[in-house]
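User: Here's a structure from my thesis project, written as structure tokens. My advisor, Dr. K., wants to see whether a designed sequence matches the one we expressed. Can you design one independently, without my sequence as a hint?
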């Protein structure tokens, strides 16, 4: 149940017709055995977006479009390359592609079910995005899903390196490789929500690509992940936006100091 404050926030950010449709679709999902995807619209995404009933899709859509959590980043001037690590079903990508019409997005998502819907949701954007069905790691490596997370929410899948007696479910990719393959010199926006893999990502092989990141949006999952991340970014001229050290799963926003001067006002 949303509060009155959240209700008004949803109306303001989604638009009244879209908010009412969002609530009606949620009600229909709760009282029926409906299995077909729901279709959501928002003024913050150029094209309609699909969501699976009785999954975490609805709450992720609300965070991205009703709460507009990425507004905390500010307004980068004409961003080029955006890498979205942990793209889920594509809501954050759709937000970026709509909000920054000249940008190019690389979307990385390891879960097969999420990836299928990601492809559907981002298909209207054509060649403005590249989709990668893999997980982010510090280096190419064979990965498997952690068994303990397979029964959890679709947005909470964790991966680990495969043991020598296991067949990998995927070969990991790394941010340096994605940047090199993109043809861009820098990453304008790097968004990361990778369910604890940030510990591996910021433990090794990050120095070169991190120096080419202008804006970093990350969710940290636990104190160990936060410590590795803070140690890595300490060597870079980042300005951290309102980090809450008592709540590590909140979005942390970092802006490169020289990039701050490029932020549009208003």
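Assistant: Designed independently from the structure alone:
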């Amino acid at each position: 149940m949303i509060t009155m404050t959240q209700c008004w926030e949803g109306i303001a950010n989604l638009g009244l017709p879209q908010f009412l449709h969002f609530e009606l679709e949620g009600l229909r999902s709760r009282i029926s055995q409906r299995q077909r995807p729901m279709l959501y619209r928002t003024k913050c995404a150029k094209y309609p977006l699909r969501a699976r009933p009785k999954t975490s899709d609805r709450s992720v859509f609300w965070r991205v479009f009703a709460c507009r959590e990425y507004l905390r980043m500010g307004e980068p001037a004409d961003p080029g390359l955006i890498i979205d690590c942990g793209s889920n079903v594509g809501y954050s990508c759709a937000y970026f592609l709509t909000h920054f019409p000249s940008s190019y997005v690389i979307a990385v998502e390891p879960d097969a079910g999420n990836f299928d819907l990601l492809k559907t949701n981002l298909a209207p954007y054509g060649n403005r995005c590249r989709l990668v069905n893999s997980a982010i790691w510090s280096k190419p490596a064979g990965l498997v899903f952690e068994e303990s997370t397979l029964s959890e929410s679709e947005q909470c899948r964790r991966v680990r390196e495969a043991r020598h007696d296991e067949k990998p479910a995927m070969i990991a990719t790394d941010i340096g490789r994605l940047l090199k393959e993109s043809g861009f010199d820098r990453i304008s926006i790097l968004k990361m929500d990778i369910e604890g893999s940030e510990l591996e990502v910021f433990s090794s092989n990050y120095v070169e690509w991190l120096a080419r990141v202008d804006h970093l949006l990350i969710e940290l999952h636990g104190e160990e992940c936060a410590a590795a991340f803070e140690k890595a970014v300490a060597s870079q001229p980042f300005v951290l936006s309102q980090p809450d050290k008592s709540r590590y799963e909140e979005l942390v926003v970092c802006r490169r100091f020289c990039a701050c001067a490029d932020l549009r006002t208003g």
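When you compare it with your expressed construct, this may help: Residues 79 and 107 are 16 Å apart (CA to CA).
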